[in-house]
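Anyone up for a design puzzle?
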């Protein structure tokens, strides 16, 4: 029985045990993508590489056998560098977007594609949960947002963009019409208190997310009613006050407290707020340039100065967002600021390092060729855009919203949240541009299966699906075609995907480490 050391720990294993299994036997995790327990070893991705210190060799742990006297390192800087190189190489020929352009251009980074799929499936409760994960005031924004997401929608290359804003508004209005609108689950009280100066879109949004984390919030505003410019600057026919009041009422019912007709500097001082509260948010809306003495923080003619990722000011317990930081920006940007401040403050009050919102790696194809637009249109409703029967101000009916949603091309990755390639790219700070490849392969989407799509550009040639279909004795299965760098996974004899995946579709989708194989309705 070989005796070896892994990361300085002694381990004894059966002869024939791989380094991967030896490491796992003592609780050491090694990343893998082409490995699948119970199936033949393939050794293609090289993400599981480790270093054998005595020989100085880098070995694929999924196939290298443990040998007596080995000294193995799985987590050193050198090992990380080798894994990063392997990922860089895989990314260099990756063809596909992690996120759709609509979501990337949304200032709040809302998961628009998921909302659209949920509406198309008639899952309205799930749709509003998706929306309010990132946008606290969707019924409001659904009426006043200038729709940057729609300008980026790829469907416009075929005929016309989806009416994303009207769809968001529909989901929000449907929810507000319920006897009990959606209320997110809140954590237990933390005992911490946050003062929010300004009841405009940034302040309201910050309160919505902060109360969910268990922190008590008090919103101070010098107007008679909350809403800021949403109430006092937008015409009633564009934004009915009843809609605004309903969305504010949700925030109030979650536990946020409001102090109206209260002006900082007159009715309460910043020194008082600092003594009484554990953190402060400044979101007073559009203001004249203020002397540093008013807020007690760094500012200039453009507004309050903040860290752009954290929205933290020169005072560690004060955060700022909205018009006071970026004058002239959209209400949706202010709402996004609210969530960013809430996340940063929750980290600060929890004693964590303040890092703000996590932004994950995003593979991007860039501009698509006309043929690629038609690839994305496979299995998509080709109907023209839906106009609300009662006009844009009336919004969609349920039937209209569902029909409009079915026009979506689904150009995001259906497995963006379950992609090992993306996870490991984040972990090892890999780059899609490290290996400069001129041009890229064309995007392709194979839809010849009743429930599964195959996007070859996302395939890393791990061979897992090939081994699964072979092991299950599929009549055709999947197989490699071509040799070397040009090899691809394909269906033998140019048969449709359904012929290759007759009994193993679900398992192949489940085990695929990227979004190459995915369910159509995911």
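Challenge accepted. My sequence:
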């Amino acid at each position: 029985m070989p005796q070896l050391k892994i990361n300085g720990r002694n381990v004894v294993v059966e002869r024939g045990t791989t380094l991967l299994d030896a490491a796992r036997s003592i609780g050491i995790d090694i990343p893998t993508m082409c490995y699948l327990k119970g199936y033949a070893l393939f050794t293609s991705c090289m993400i599981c590489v480790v270093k054998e210190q005595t020989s100085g060799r880098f070995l694929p742990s999924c196939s290298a056998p443990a040998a007596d006297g080995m000294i193995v390192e799985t987590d050193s800087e050198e090992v990380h560098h080798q894994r990063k190189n392997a990922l860089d190489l895989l990314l260099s020929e990756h063809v596909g977007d992690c996120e759709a352009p609509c979501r990337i251009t949304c200032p709040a980074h809302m998961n628009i594609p998921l909302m659209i799929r949920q509406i198309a499936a008639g899952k309205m409760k799930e749709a509003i949960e998706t929306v309010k994960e990132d946008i606290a005031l969707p019924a409001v924004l659904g009426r006043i947002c200038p729709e940057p997401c729609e300008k980026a929608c790829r469907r416009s290359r075929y005929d016309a963009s989806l009416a994303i804003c009207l769809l968001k508004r529909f989901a929000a209005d449907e929810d507000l019409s319920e006897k009990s609108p959606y209320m997110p689950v809140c954590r237990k009280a933390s005992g911490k208190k946050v003062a929010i100066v300004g009841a405009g879109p940034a302040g309201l949004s910050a309160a919505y997310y902060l109360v969910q984390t268990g922190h008590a919030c008090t919103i101070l505003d010098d107007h008679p009613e909350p809403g800021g410019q949403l109430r006092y600057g937008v015409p009633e026919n564009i934004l009915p006050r009843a809609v605004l009041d309903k969305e504010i009422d949700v925030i109030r019912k979650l536990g946020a407290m409001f102090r109206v007709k209260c002006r900082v500097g007159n009715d309460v001082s910043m020194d008082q707020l600092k003594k009484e509260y554990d953190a402060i948010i400044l979101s007073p809306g559009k203001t004249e340039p203020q002397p540093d003495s008013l807020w007690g923080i760094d500012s200039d003619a453009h507004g309050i100065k903040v860290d752009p990722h954290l929205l933290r000011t020169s005072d560690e317990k004060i955060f700022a967002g909205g018009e006071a930081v970026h004058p002239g920006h959209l209400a949706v940007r202010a709402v996004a600021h609210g969530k960013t401040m809430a996340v940063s403050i929750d980290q600060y009050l929890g004693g964590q390092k303040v890092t703000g919102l996590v932004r994950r790696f995003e593979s991007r194809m860039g501009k698509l060729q006309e043929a690629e637009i038609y690839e994305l249109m496979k299995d998509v409703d080709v109907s023209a855009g839906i106009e609300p029967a009662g006009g844009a101000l009336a919004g969609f009916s349920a039937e209209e919203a569902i029909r409009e949603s079915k026009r979506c091309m689904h150009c995001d990755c259906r497995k963006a949240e379950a992609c090992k390639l993306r996870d490991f790219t984040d972990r090892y700070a890999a780059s899609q541009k490290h290996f400069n490849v001129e041009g890229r392969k064309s995007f392709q989407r194979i839809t010849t299966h009743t429930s599964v799509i195959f996007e070859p550009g996302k395939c890393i040639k791990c061979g897992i699906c090939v081994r699964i279909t072979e092991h299950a004795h599929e009549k055709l299965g999947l197989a490699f075609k071509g040799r070397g760098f040009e090899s691809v996974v394909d269906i033998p004899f140019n048969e449709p995907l359904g012929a290759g995946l007759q009994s193993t579709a679900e398992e192949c989708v489940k085990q695929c480490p990227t979004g190459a194989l995915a369910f159509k309705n995911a």
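A detail worth pointing out: The mean pLDDT is 95.
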